[in-house]
Automatic annotation (TrEMBL):
Residue ranges of domain Galactosyltransferase N-terminal in the record: 17-101
Any Gene Ontology biological process: carbohydrate metabolic process
Domain of life: Eukaryota
Gene responsible for this protein: B4galt4
Gene Ontology cellular-component annotations: Golgi apparatus
Protein name per UniProt: Beta-1,4-galactosyltransferase 4
Pfam families: Glyco_transf_7N
Transmembrane spans: none
């Protein structure tokens, strides 16, 4: 928001976007922890982020089915948050635990 002569105007994030330059380095450090991911993404609260310097034109929900792969989830979140923030999106990430149904074939899972 910009204030000028007591008039408040919202700036669209679309006007503030800069072209993505260069490649993003992916790293898969075995020492990565949830606290590391949280400290690198201070603007994220309970899986939700909204740009503070502009009004996002879009809101996105990301659903992640998850089952017993905590290390993979950390790597995904570590790279997904900066990727979405770079696009100036309002987003929320939902991690959904997959549950195995009794007496079902091994490939049939449902989201709980």
């Amino acid at each position: 928001m910009i204030t000028s002569n007591s008039i408040v105007t919202n700036i669209s994030c679309f006007n503030l976007l800069t072209p993505a330059e260069g490649s993003v380095k992916l790293s898969f450090e075995s020492s990565l922890t949830l606290k590391d991911v949280e400290s690198q993404n201070k603007g994220v609260a309970e899986g939700e982020y909204e740009p503070s310097d502009c009004t996002a034109r879009q809101s996105v929900a990301v659903l992640i089915p998850h089952r017993s792969r905590e290390r993979h989830l950390l790597y995904l979140l570590n790279h997904l948050h900066p990727f979405l923030q770079r696009q100036q999106l309002h987003y929320a990430i939902y991690v959904i635990q997959q549950v195995h149904r009794l007496h079902a074939s091994p490939n049939k899972y449902k989201l709980a």
